[in-house]
Amino acid sequence: MWADVTVLSEKANVELVKRLKNFPSIVDPYACLQCGKCTSGCTVMVLMENFPHRVVDMVRLGLVPELLKSDVIWACTQCQKCRDACPQKVNPSEIFIVLRNLSIIEGGSVPDAYSNMLSKVLESGFIQDAIGVVGSDGLTYDRLKLSLPQLSGPKNVDVFQANCMDAFQRGV
Ligand code: SF4
Ligand code: SF4
User: Fold this and answer.
1) Does the domain made of 5-105 have the CATH classification 1.10.1060?
2) 124 alpha carbon to ligand 2 midpoint, in Å?
3) Which of 114, 81, 100 lies closest to 171 in space, CA to CA?
4) Which of 15, 20, 85, 145 is a plausible cystine mate for 141, CB 3.0–4.6 Å?
5) Ligand nearest to the CA of 48
6) From the CB of 128, is ligand 1 less than 6 Å away?
7) Relative to the alpha carbon of 83, which ligand is closest?
């Protein structure tokens, strides 16, 4: 059960939290035990101090407006480790998605890194150009040197872009 956030925090923005509750995929953050298993395995835990069990706690304390202003909601890589680790099926990764959506709804903007990555995907089908890897001998190896096939993007870029934009608009 969701508690009344107004009694939990003077800073609570009831309307925002109500919208958060209405997202279909979110799992009740009040089921969280604050065990920290999600944070212990989080891919980017070292980058942010509020990651991710503390974000779950902030949501249930009604501190959504503070989170919407914070870069922390954009640092999650959506690796889903927290979903698998959580004994309560709270799924912090979904909470990050909901917070990002709310941030945009509230007039926030997508960080440049995401916009750049999206442009790259629409251009080439990949989030970045293929890069070489440095071997134990200190030399850099590209795909050719590693006898890997060259990456090929979409056969028809126009159709690919149209399909991507359609998927974005439908939220799939
Ligand atoms: S999905 Fe996000 S919050 Fe969860 S473990 Fe991965 S990076 Fe961390
Ligand atoms: S693993 Fe689940 S129950 Fe434990 S702190 Fe994270 S969200 Fe809460």
Assistant:
1) yes
2) 37
3) 100
4) 145
5) 1
6) no
7) 1
